[in-house]
TrEMBL record:
Source species of the chain: Streptomyces echinatus
This protein's GO CC annotations: plasma membrane
InterPro entries per UniProt: EmrB-like, MFS, MFS_dom, MFS_trans_sf
Major facilitator superfamily (MFS) profile domain boundaries: 14-459
Protein name in the entry: EmrB/QacA subfamily drug resistance transporter
UniProt subcellular location: Cell membrane
GO molecular function term, any single one: transmembrane transporter activity
């Protein structure tokens, strides 16, 4: 049984290193969007290259995050966490030194692999290290500090882009890793799951990531009319079919198909796909809209996005408590509708948009909608499966959210008719943005309708989330599984 106490010196060191590690990935998920216009200018990149700058990271992270958690359970959580931090920092250094968009995109894909190793590992270290009496408090501190990192991310990204330059958005991870790794090696005890057995589903992970990459490529490149696009799309579908076949026939699949026998679990993941597809498209395009069309500096654009994550950080735990009393159906129905209304309000954001009257109202409503739905969504995921599969269910839900976001970033420019140079033209980008927001709102309305029709109150006594404070806008919080 883990026996480290939170009030002890070792307990504080463990908390520090897990917060530092998870903050690296959280910061990158929120700051890169703000840097995109400057990246495009400096590297003379097309809109497709900017899409890949976001999506290359998401493809490998979403495809490998379940495998990353399993590696930690088998080979040692501290070991895999440290490897993930070092890998992430090395890839970040390559991003910061990238001479062109091709190198940057490749480095971002490598970053995603590091993120898949360290993201589940940071929470698993807390679970495996702290005494049971202190574990919930330790998770609360971890999620709270992580939420602060997510909230500060856009502001910090804007400051770096406007000051030292966009490359420091990535280079900042290097000193964080240099602090994190020695602390982890010195103060964090090693742990593993002695019950872990069987072969790793490397084939399944590879097929999942390959399918996402091929389908994303087809969506991003479809505007050019290349004959390779339908072939790539067909190959992506074939890889997805092969992934399902492999998962159905492996003795130890990464994504066990029988977990979807729970109607509630399937329903809430369908809602997740709709909600986080809209969120992914919204935050990608809004960071560009504020700079390209409204004329905001990177610092102003980053600061403008703060209210959403601050509201989530402050009120997500209260939202979870309210959902415990009302059941998840109401918040999962109302939350997406609030977010849809916020996206329609964003249609007021055009050239010379005033922050207080045009931007802030939409972001406050957006934050209120996210507060309403994110905590109940996570709680419903955990309550819909057996307690022994809580970590797996949370990982699937997190990966689904990230996959939905990357598909949205790939598809929205195609659906709205953005050309390769659209982000260089305020007029063209504004017109496309005005077409994109109703699409995102429609996807949210679909998610609301699915929640209303399919989500039901969980049985009493179900497991509740430990991460009650959350500030990340790209995916719901991860929850740990059984004790190691």
């Amino acid at each position: 049984m883990p026996d480290v106490r939170l009030a002890s010196r070792q307990g504080r060191w463990i908390l520090l290193t897990t917060v530092l590690g998870s903050s690296m990935a959280l910061l990158d998920s929120t700051v890169v969007n703000v840097a995109l216009p400057r990246i495009g200018q400096d590297l003379d990149a097309s809109l497709a290259a900017l899409q890949w700058t976001v999506n290359a990271y998401m493809v490998t992270l979403a495809g490998l995050i379940l495998l990353g958690g399993s590696l930690g359970d088998r080979y040692g959580r501290r070991k895999i966490f440290v490897i993930g931090v070092v890998w992430f920092a090395a890839a970040s250094l390559l991003c910061g030194l990238a001479p062109n968009s091709v190198v940057l995109i490749a480095a971002r894909a490598l970053q995603g692999i590091g993120g898949a190793l360290l993201t589940p590992g940071s929470l698993a270290l807390i679970q495996a290290s702290f005494h049971p009496d202190d574990r919930s408090r330790a998770v609360g501190f971890w999620s709270g500090f992580g939420g602060i990192g997510a909230a500060v991310g856009p502001f910090l990204g804007g400051w770096l882009v406007a000051g030292p330059g966009w490359r420091w958005v990535f280079l900042l991870n290097v000193p964080l890793a240099l602090l994190c790794v020695p602390v982890a090696l010195r103060h964090v005890p090693e742990s593993a799951d002695t019950r872990a057995h069987g072969r790793f589903d490397i084939l399944g992970a590879a097929l999942g990531a390959l399918s996402l990459a091929l389908l994303t490529y087809a969506l991003i490149e479809a505007r050019g009319g290349s004959p390779a696009v339908p072939l790539t799309g067909a190959a992506g579908v074939a890889a997805a079919v092969a992934f399902v076949f492999v998962e159905r026939h492996r003795p130890d699949p990464m994504l066990p198909p029988d977990i979807f026998a729970s109607r509630q679990f399937t329903a809430v993941n369908l809602v997740t796909l709709c909600v986080y597809a809209a969120f992914g498209g919204f935050f990608f395009l809004t960071a560009l809209q504020l700079q390209v069309v409204a004329g905001y500096s990177p610092l102003a654009a980053g600061t403008a996005l703060l209210p959403t994550t601050v509201l989530m950080l402050l009120f997500s735990s209260r939202s979870g408590a309210l959902a415990d009393r009302t059941g998840p159906r109401l918040p999962l129905t109302a939350g997406p509708l609030l977010c849809a209304a916020a996206m329609l309000l964003m249609l007021r954001v055009g050239p010379g948009a005033d922050y207080l009257t045009d931007v802030l109202p939409a972001l406050l409503i957006m934050g209120a909608g996210m507060v309403t739905l994110v905590a109940p969504l996570t709680a419903t995921v955990l309550a819909s499966v057996d307690a022994t599969r809580a970590g797996l269910a949370s990982g699937i839900n997190n990966a689904a959210a990230r996959a939905a976001g990357l598909v949205a970033v790939a598809a929205l420019p195609l659906l709205t008719g953005m050309g390769p140079e659209a982000y260089r033209s305020p007029t063209a980008f504004d017109a496309a943005f005005d077409r994109a927001m109703p699409i995102c709102a429609g996807v949210l309305v679909l998610g609301s309708a699915l929640a209303f029709a399919l989500v039901r109150r969980p049985a009493p006594g179900c497991r509740r989330p430990e991460c009650r404070q959350h500030g990340c806008v790209t995916a719901p919080p991860l929850e740990a599984g059984g004790r190691g």
